[in-house]
UniProtKB/TrEMBL annotation, chain B:
Organism: Sulfidibacter corallicola
Gene (name only): modB
Protein name per the record: Molybdenum transport system permease
Coiled coil segments of this chain: none
UniProt domain ABC transmembrane type-1: residue ranges: 11-215
Family: Belongs to the binding-protein-dependent transport system permease family. CysTW subfamily.
Entry GO terms, CC: plasma membrane
Amino acid sequence: MILNTPSVDANRIHARFSLDYPDAKGPAFSLDVDVTVPGNGITIIFGQSGSGKTTFLRCVAGLEKPDRGRLAVNGDIWQSETTFLPTHKRPLGYVFQESSLFPHLTAKGNLAYALKRSGSAVTSELYDRVMGIMGIEPVLQRYPDRLSGGERQRVAIARALLIQPRLLLMDEPLASLDAARKQEILPYLERLRSTFDIPVLYVSHAMDEVARLADHTVVLDQGRVVAQGNLTEVFSRIDLPMRFGDETGVVLKGRVVERDTRWHLSRVAFDGGELWVRDGGDALDRWVRVRVLAKDVSLALASHGDTSILNRLPVEVAELSQDQDEAIALVRLKTGPAYLIARVTQRSVHQLKLEPGKRLWAQIKSVAIVR
Amino acid sequence: MSFSEADIAAIWLTLRLATTVTLVLMVIGTPIAWWLARTRSWWKGPVGAVVALPLVLPPTVLGFYLLVAMGPNGPIGQVTQSLGLGTLPFTFWGLVVGSVFYSMPFVVQPIQNAIEALGERPLEVAATLRAGPWDRFFTVVLPLAKPGFLTAAILGFAHTVGEFGVVLMIGGNIPGETRVVSVQIYDHVEALEYAQAHALSGAMVIFSFVVLLVVYGYQRMQAPLGMKYRV
């Protein structure tokens, strides 16, 4: 007999949840998702508030009990028709949105709580590595109310790492912080990715976090999955039900192929073209991630050399779509296998007679290396 | 101001009763408080009301029903008899049972309030750190709700020391067995022994005042810690 278990894959996370809140008081909400993501790297669960992303994460953690569900993490069944592992039996780490440190324990006491319950003994090497990455050694003797918001979140992340999880869940860990604190923590998260080989499910509604951290993306809207796939692919789509306004844009992965020291610029080659970007100190041959916002892309029928714009790419119109603003259209542009999005007025669409298949030039006003 | 031997016996008996009742109430009151704090069941209202009944009922009413229930034909009486324990009225353990009901709200409500104030989050956090249910209770609930538990124990103890009506109904007046301080004072007054009544009553006033002072002082000291969790 061949068992039909396609979802039990040694290097995949498969989650299928169905959950109803027929709440008479609040708005009725239902979550119905079927998600398969790679069992490594950072997967961002993206969506606006109320999209069900936190509920999804809570289902994965077993904090919410879906009516029907199935969850397999890298070959282990956490939930099926017959089993439901309670949260404390799931080998996961969870970082909550707001501070979740126990107020009756010092930072060190909070870490000790995890050390004591970790699946296997934490080696001093791992401990030192976590301390080094999160940079919290100087504040260990303090109680949570004597820590800054950023320090609290770093201790909470360290605590989640010391439990030695096989899956790390993060629920908007930066949302409670101001922009400056956020910039302070993002590098720690990047180091976390490069140092630990733990798959991460990361809930966020912030585009900048997504562009910087995500390897893989799942987009939720009103409790349903509207897109899932790799970051570049998902964010080059313009047919998703939600609109991101000024934040609309694509993320491209490319390599630094030239550094122009005179003008402090780098040339980044991606599959589908090349872009000049401000030199961010990245060495030659390094892989970088660049973000091209749709509002910075304008269209021209001919290549103009006499402008201040550095980057011009020959593109082909692939698809047109209406922005949430009536006057604005989104144009999806194909360059090689890659896509750009341009945000232009409907009048320009009419004047340039834009339609799928039309060839023209994309002028890119600014490009930012996000990583 | 001096205490007679009978006074000392009454004081000693009262302390023994209050200690026993407090211990029993902490053990059975905690799960009740836990359930009341966290259930969304329809039963929360009725159960909460039953627990709070002694706050409003005359102690004689409570004592009367307990007397009937624990008597030879009452449901509790039949159980204790079939267990070979005899009947409970007019015994020390009868007083314990009566006092447990009488002091229940004073123990359940502070614990319930403390657990409600704690919320779901610390328990969820502990669960994601692999702490099982008992582990969560002892390492998270108990330390964070400690002020509630201490208040409950102190109030349960003090309220049992202060009871009179229930004791008189189901305990009677047996020296060394059911004659607690409040009954002893009553006896002194009946016998017109005002000096002795003064001594015991004065001691009770001081005791009760100190207890409340400690509870309120402690609650004020702890209040800021309770707030800290809500970021």
